[in-house]
Amino acid sequence: MSTSALPPQKQLTTMIGHPVAENPIDQMFDAVFAHYGLHWQFWKSDVATEAQVGAAIGGIRALGFAGACITVPWKVASIPFLDEVDADVKAIGAANYMTIREGRLIGHNNDGKGVVKAIRKITEIQGKRVVMLGAGGAGRAMAVELAWAGASHLTLITRREAQGVEVAQTVTRASGVPCDWQPWVGEVQVPAGTQILMNATHLGCAPEMEPVPVNWETISPETTLVDVITNPRITPFLKAAQEKGCPIVDGVEMLVQLAMQIFEEWTDIQPEEKIFQQAVAKALGE
Q1: Which overall architecture, per CATH, does domain 3-109+253-283 show?
Q2: With respect to CATH, is domain 112-249 assigned 3.40.50.720?
Q3: Peptide bond preceding 191 in cis form (omega within 30 of 0)
Q4: Contact, 108 vs 265, CB < 8 A?
Q5: What 3-state class would DSSP assign to 139?
Q6: Nearest C-alpha neighbor of 230 from the set 201, 211, 198, 252
Q7: If pLDDT is split at 50, 70 and 90, which confidence band does 7 have?
Q8: Cα 186–190–165 angle (5° rounding)?
Q9: From edge to edge, which strands make up the β-sheet containing 196-199?
Q10: How many angstroms separate the CA atoms of 101 and 87, rounded?
Q11: Spatial separation of the C-alpha atoms in residues 22 and 115, rounded to whole Å
């Protein structure tokens, strides 16, 4: 058989995290790769423990992957295994994807940029008081970017004090915007005057879809509610928000916004948003 008749070698991309089974990112990227005629493929890689993160990233390097995403809970733990990180990662302290140039793994973070673009489709951020539930790798990036986008004040509500205080300090250091921490004990009492309330936890993710324990009496119908969960699109948190009459921003919209930038960084192709929207909707069976 002539070598000229062989199909081109696939360019492989991946995402490491735990859990990853319910995330539609692989189906979305594969559909977009196909649309643009790219012989590329996306694999989800479940890395169950922090002890395996270094080996997983070593595998990405050794196997010649073209790019990789990093999802919870390894956005912080991955950094020491990268060759270089950009200014956003240095400011935020977490990475959510990497580009690979001549074998060097370069960490980036556009979690917050995706959420800012998604929120701005529904409401302005400038001058708003923001409350975030959870402050993990994704949450810390989003908190910093919301401050950079003009939020006037942020409150982080977390169960772990050390994490919440550290991220609050990171936000203020990176942006100059005041950010405080409140303990998450039982049912969350949302502070008065909250204009944007974001769930940055795993609560609501398929298949369990647990409700976020908040006191809905403390939430105004004028408050915009945001969820980072990508499957299902309308989580129990967002469904309750709709029933209360609140504007909502879903995690799928954030995923589309950040994935478009990652795609362009990997392929040097500027994609059409409608292609990503159609691909993720199909992946979710919508």
Answers
A1: 3-Layer(aba) Sandwich (3.40)
A2: yes
A3: no
A4: yes
A5: helix
A6: 252
A7: low
A8: 75
A9: 179-183, 153-158, 129-133, 196-199, 224-227, 248-249
A10: 17
A11: 20
Q: For position 4, what pLDDT does the model report?
A: 55
Q: Residue 169 is encoded by which pair of tokens?
A: 């300090």
Q: Does the model's pTM come out above 0.85?
A: yes
d(CA 276, CA 252): 10
Same fold, 3-109+253-283 and 112-249: yes
Exposed e or buried b per residue across 164-191, where buried means at least 16 C-beta atoms within 10 angstroms of its C-beta: bbbbbebbbebbebebebbebeeebebe
| CA atoms within 13 Å, Cβ hemisphere of 33 | 20
* Contact status, residue 198 vs residue 215, Cβ threshold 8 Å: no
Please give the C-alpha separations between residue 141 and each of 72, 91, 96, 157, 199, in angstroms, as whole numbers. 12, 9, 9, 15, 13
Q: What's the mean per-residue pLDDT of the chain?
A: 95
Closest CA to 87 of 164, 200, 174, 179: 174
Going across the sheet that includes 84-85, the strands are 40-46, 11-17, 67-70, 97-101, 104-108, 84-85
Q: Which two tokens stand for residue 82?
A: 């990268």
Name the token pair of 73.
């809970």
CB of 103 closer than 8 Å to CB of 126: no
* pLDDT tens, position by position, 165-181: 999 999 999 999 999 99
Q: Which residues are catalytic?
A: 75
- Whether residue 70 is predicted with pLDDT greater than 70 in this model: the reply is yes
Domain coordinates in residue numbering, the chain = 3-109+253-283, 112-249
C-alpha 178/C-alpha 176 separation (Å) is 6
Tens-digit pLDDT profile for residues 247-283: 999 999 999 999 999 999 999 999 999 999 999 999 9
The token pair that represents 262 in the structure block = 């990652």
